[in-house]
């Protein structure tokens, strides 16, 4: 009743997830403040519909029972930016701003930067322009703007980069923007890409002064993307500020796989902004809602008056990107009861009624404002209503379930007082239920991280299905679990298979297959209740099935017959 409006800026940064992953894979929990829950949730892509009304993005709203506080509701607001095909991507004017100071010498810093930029350069064409600016004690132009078709010249410049000296980042920023402005492509994507460990120690190094400089440069129409590398001097908060004020995004590159994702698979989203200064405002109904909280986005919250103020900076969304925000909502009746008041004495509407008179069971209304990339005046999108719902999260959209699992994971490793009844085992079980739609192995990797945290905390990770089998009741009977890399090597069967299509964890198959079995070719599309699995060559290495798209030599008819014959058993978890 006192604060019905919740206003915040969108965030498509993903650095916190990659940084959190690095800590967990090293066997330690990340610092609490390094875990930004919205960046964990938004690291993953969700199946929201493409915009169809000419808007740069679509809006989706879902409501279900909150799994960690069953008396509460959980609401999801999702945005999906329009996808731009690679062959329709506008021309790009890129300036790589590379930190080559002494602190960048380790393999996970400058050498990884060079690999990452090589991935990006491989995607450039003759309409694209690339320049390279380096900075250490002094800053300089390493490569003038060069056509993307001149890949050999650009690659030679990248290969020649070496580290040494102190870090005068401010001077490099000035030269990079000047270079980008000189080569400005009207109607194109003009962007400075800063790659650094964040160790600014010469020249302007004060955070506020750097932010003011970046804000001033952003008015030129040149956007800024910031990518952190390495672990020793990573100035996480500083890099996030620079990206936010530079109308760009902030990512953390912890390995070549992440570089390929950001600079290869998601290139359009990384480079092409479809809307800037995107703000959301939720207006909660005091007839149905007693209290609410936005999960994450702590440094993105805006005052209600900022929603209509075009001078207030907000976040950008790139082509094909998705943005997800979760709210935990306390229904009014529950809130009154918790406050020691009698709900019967208040006007409360709990039913979901298709009516628009303001007392219809509506929980909240979503309002949006955004600017087109080259505009200074914002546009208002249509409003979207969220109705009360008693659906259980387990019966809702599978993407909604997975996003909730990721958010709960973030709350638990932050030791949040709002983490409720859920445990890491609940997170793991819910995330595993979504692996049937795991297109790129990212969700499988997330389940590995959950197990990693459970190991660090000394918690049991046993699948309860295994303990019900007479031969698997003793945990000592389980095979040793290999590292992800070793398991994948083993699953290729001495290099016979290549091009991994999918990995599926089904731990109870150990009862049938032990720790390893080369199963052979499968030409149907169903397994364990999943209907979207690819055809290919299936190999079992505990606890996963690996499906490969190619084989060095096609299996002979006998091995295929043997595979098909072996599959005709009654085990519910074997290929039917």
Count of helix runs = 17
Separation of the first and last Cα atoms: 57 Å
Catalogue the unreliable spans.
352-358, 463-473, 554-576
Indicate the proportion of strand residues: 25-35%
Question: What's the story with the biggest beta sheet?
Answer: 7 strands, antiparallel
From the spread of the alpha carbons, the general shape counts as: globular
Q: Name the structural class.
A: alpha+beta
Helix content: 25-40%
Instruction: Give me the count of strands.
Output: 21
- Could you tell me the mean pLDDT? 84
Radius of gyration: 26 Å
Could you characterize what this model shows?
The longest helix is centred in the C-terminal third of the chain and has 16 residues, at 398-413. α11 (398-413) packs antiparallel against α12 (424-432) and α12 runs antiparallel to α13 (442-457). The chain has helices at residues 15-25, 37-41, 110-121, 151-159, 169-182, 207-218, 236-245, 256-265, 267-271, 332-338, 398-413, 424-432, 442-457, 464-467, 484-491, 510-513, 557-566, and strands at residues 5-9, 57-65, 73-81, 92-99, 129-135, 139-147, 189-196, 223-229, 250-253, 273-284, 289-294, 301-302, 315-318, 322-331, 362-371, 379-380, 384-387, 497-505, 516-522, 536-541, 544-551. The strands form four sheets. Strands 1, 10, 12, 13, 15, 16 and 17 form a seven-stranded antiparallel beta sheet that branches. It has 576 residues and is an alpha+beta fold. The protein contains 17 helices and 21 strands. Mean pLDDT is 84; it is low at 352-358, 463-473 and 554-576. It is globular and about 70 Å long.
